[in-house]
Design brief:
By secondary structure, the protein is α/β, with parallel strands linked by helices. It has one domain (about 5-290). The protein is about 50% helix and about 15% strand. The chain has eleven helices and nine strands. The chain has helices spanning about 5-25, 30-45, 45-60, 65-90, 90-95, 110-115, 130-140, 155-170, 180-185, 220-225, 260-280; strands spanning about 105, 120-125, 145-150, 170-175, 190-195, 205-210, 210-215, 230-240, 245-250. The protein starts with a helix and ends in a 28-residue tail after the last helix.
């Protein structure tokens, strides 16, 4: 690593560490207000991230919403990420105070029934609402959750994220590095948290997302097929009163028509549709900064086996 890169990583780490300390000291609502002010400063100062957010919202909602409405949502995307970030670093405090003070769940029985079968499950969510707090809440409820996440490029920040997750009680499995741990977790009957709403360098297929083709990871469906286990959807969103609401949805069984490749694409499309439906209800609570449609190919139906892992 170059000296410049090392210096940049150190500055990022100490800046984040300072903010973590501040937001754990301040009362929650005060911290969220401060974070939202900082987010608005960043929104106006960072033309790249602001323009990306507006561009992606326009791709998704350009035929449905006015430019004024899209700009309003784009500002609220930054405000929401600020609030979610504050609550994520306050997870140890939530645990001490009792997480049910802040979080209510709907249809938890879908998760409980799948977990009760003892064969493991895929818990599918998105970069929506507060996915870190969702994992912490499930672990607080006593479930042996494992989550698959991509390591950050800044090793110090990555260690900080892992520390927060360890404090929450759930175990992080590094995507692309600890594959055996994924298999071991499912064999032990653990819920395995995964996300498929970003364009990442893993095996995937192109399916519709807001009416446009988006490269989407296939890992959750392949694992569900291999272990013959259900996929349970869970999404957490922030309410106006700053409480959280988790919605669990009915389990999805993988398709078995005799055409594995067609079944895979069909199942990934179902997963993508579920994520889209949830985002449409609260569009400001998804990470529109991410370039969801960045990767394209001339052949959208390219066989999965030929795509990069």
């Amino acid at each position: 690593m170059s000296i410049k890169k090392s210096y940049k990583n150190a500055m990022q780490y100490y800046a984040v560490l300072f903010l973590v300390g501040i937001f754990r000291i301040l009362p929650r609502r005060t911290g969220i207000s401060v974070a939202r002010c900082l987010a608005m400063f960043f929104y106006w100062a960072s033309g790249k991230h602001r323009n990306n957010t507006i561009r992606h919202l326009t791709l998704a909602f350009g035929d449905e919403k006015s430019g004024r409405e899209i700009r309003r949502i784009s500002r609220n995307v930054f405000r929401h990420l600020a609030a979610a970030g504050v609550d994520a670093v306050r997870i140890p405090i939530f645990i001490r105070q009792g997480m049910d003070r802040y979080i209510k769940a709907e249809n938890l029985h879908y998760f409980e029934e799948a977990f009760g079968e003892g064969n493991g499950m895929i818990l599918l969510t998105a970069h929506f609402g507060n996915w870190e707090l969702l994992g912490a809440w499930l672990t607080w409820k006593g479930y042996p959750l494992r989550v698959v996440g991509k390591p950050l490029t800044n090793p110090r920040l990555n260690d900080l994220i892992l520390q927060i997750r360890n404090q929450a009680g759930y175990i992080n499995i590094a995507r692309g590095i600890e594959t055996r741990e994924i298999l071991r977790a499912l064999k032990q009957g653990c819920p395995l948290g995964m996300l498929i709403d970003q364009d990442t360098r893993v095996k995937g297929v192109y399916v519709d997302f807001f009416g446009k083709k988006a490269y989407t990871p296939v890992g959750p469906v392949l694992l569900a097929r291999r272990f013959n286990i259900p996929i349970v959807f869970a999404f957490m969103h922030l309410e106006k009163d700053l409480s959280y609401h988790i919605e669990f949805l009915p389990p999805m069984k993988v398709s078995d028509s005799g055409d594995p490749e067609a079944d895979l694409i069909a199942d990934i499309q179902k997963c993508s549709d579920m994520v889209e439906q949830v985002i449409r209800k609260h569009p400001e609570q998804w990470v529109w900064i991410h370039r969801r449609w960045k990767r394209q190919t001339k052949d959208m139906n390219e066989p999965v086996a030929r795509q990069s892992i």
